Amino acid sequence: MKTSPEQKIASLVARISISLPPDLLTEMDRIVENRGYSSRSQAICDMINYQLAEHKRALGNEVMVGTLTLLYDRSTRGLQEKLADLQYKHLDEVISSLHVHLTENQVLEVILVQGPATRLGDIADELITLRGIITGRLQLLAGVIPPLHPLPASHHQHPDKVPDRRGRKHALRKTQSGPKDKRRVS
User: Rounded to two decimals, what is the model's pTM?
Assistant: First the structure.
């Protein structure tokens, strides 16, 4: 016996019934109309997904994916280097970044991140509080980016050393300001 498209869709969802006060239902219908949802169910699913992501973020240990959006003044001395160094420092969490020059001195940077929510919050705070950052915001979602290529074990075992072309490890020299300098120390 063949199943109809409606039966296939019905098997992918569970039906529930909810009771709402009339004023809340009126607000819900306004949201459905204003945002262009196809149904109340779609709007409620969106709201539940948002609340689940917020709950996971609050718990702190859930691995989440998100963006860190920064607006900064590129004329602030050393800021771009600090941003690059901090992204490199958090290589396990920083997936990718994109920056766009908005005006002569303002740059918008969007950094794709993944990791435990509390760790991502700490990284965001570290970046957002740099001198020259005008504003920043971390937006997390319940999701995980599949790994494309696992990092070699040596990456985790020797974070203060970098391999040369022959695979030999060399210690990184620290500058007076603190961030790691990529020059080799013999």
Answer: 0.57
